[in-house]
User: Fold this.
Amino acid sequence: MVKSVEDILKKEFGKSLSDENVHILDPFVGTGNFMVHIIDEIKKTSLERKYANELHCNEVMLLPYYIASMNIEHEYFEKVGRYEPFEGICLVDTFDMAEQAQTSLGFMTEENTARIERQKKSPITVVIGNPPYNVGQLNENDNNKNRKYKVMDKRVAETYAKDSKATNKNALSDPYVKAIRWATDRIKDEGIVALVTNGSFIDSIAFDGMRANLEKDFDAIYVLDLGSDVRRNPKLSGTTHNVFGIQVGVSVNIFVKKGGTVAEARTK
Ligand SMILES: C[S@@+](CC[C@H](N)C(=O)[O-])C[C@H]1O[C@@H](n2cnc3c(N)ncnc32)[C@H](O)[C@@H]1O
Assistant:
């Protein structure tokens, strides 16, 4: 995934993940796999700057937050031979970052609040990660799944839901849908959204409006549909045919927004 993002960044923008001002964000970092792979991919000569200023990630749960911090710091140590605390990680609910007032997680420190403010001001070029998902979920990795988010729920309603002809749009309340909406808005006019998600948006009825919006929002869309939805294909036994050992289908999605004149033409 990280290598594909590097290739697409090169092809579409003539840039590299190692380049200055290419800010990279994993909004659902878990224990930090994507960040570790990114550190691995970045040129040694760029790593110090990147690590200090241009790598960002968020996690809402305390335990994975600590594990991600340790994994990322350890990977940096392996690469440069010295320990440096990683200040690009925030303990925060990513969807809350779009709200006027953030919900306190109960253990917010001044330092964490400052990190959140710093991330908000950073021009993000690449959003990468795998967001939580709800519908048909077996793996309870998201303890926030029924939370309402005023701003993000409205963004989904006024775009993906509004443009849908489906009568039942419940599937649009899945957090992976909100995550795609959030990431699309977060990169503004230009950048890459690379998310591994539930693949139901590819052809399910309720996602017709989402598909129409993705077409409008992006200039290039790469989707690798891994299939493996057990409910659609009961011949797949249990969860053994799925890369994540889950029952829902999975897809690897890379969406590209090219900004500039393309963005202007899109709004006309
Ligand atoms: C599917 S896992 C990501 C796994 C990750 N790629 C890794 O390397 O471990 C999703 C993660 O997002 C976190 N999460 C869920 N909702 C979130 C939110 N609204 N804001 C930030 N993190 C969230 C979960 O706690 C979980 O650790």
Remarks:
- Residues 13-128 form one domain.
- Residues 136-142 have pLDDT under 50 and may be disordered.
